[in-house]
Automatic annotation (TrEMBL):
It comes from Dicaeum eximium. The gene is Tex30. This is TEX30 protein. Transmembrane segments: none annotated. Residues 27-211 form the KANL3/Tex30 alpha/beta hydrolase-like domain. InterPro entries: AB_hydrolase_fold, KANL3/Tex30_Abhydrolase, NSL3/Tex30.
Amino acid sequence: VKVKIPFGNKYLDAIFSVPEKKPTYGVILTHGAGGDMNFPHLVSLAAYLASHGVLCLRFTCKGLNVAYRAKAFKAVVEYLKLSDDYKLSGVFLAGRSMGSRAAASVIRQLSQGDDDDGFIQGLVCLSYPLHRPKLQSKLRDEDLLLIRCPVLFVSGSADEMCETQLLEGVVSKMEAPKKIHWIDKGNHGMAVKGRTADDVMEEVNAQVFSWLRENIQLQHK
């Protein structure tokens, strides 16, 4: 279902992937610095989640400024929260690369405000860009260290923007419940020599869904 989401004086293009049964939980998903919501990994994940009962709303927001992207993400969260069509108990924010930085920023902002009502249940970071290529001294970890909700990282073990030891170091300092799933030999685009893109996406999708399911079950205990 295609929708237009109001954002300032313009609209963001978005697509709902809706499960057959009425969903209780949703995932809001966005893309990296390049591309848009039709990036193959996002389309594949959205379809997988919807087929497993989780609503997925993916959106496009062009712009290379993380603060701007975070504002757009916030607008989408508000839109879904107030939606009459889908009454959700909670959502998980998810993004690829720069999109995951924007998602982390939104969660930090909302959790520090007074309006934290528990609607956001967790964060999924696909290929989180922890540092620029070859610039390991400047880590983009400030939002991650302030987040309290559960976080899943799915990254390639050969990602030139997320060195394994550096991410593990940041994760060890995080107070939030967290998990890393390494895609063996995957690069920043999650490409792995000798494996098809579909094969890698299946691994990513299954990991994301099983983590979501675990965390939703924890909410209900």
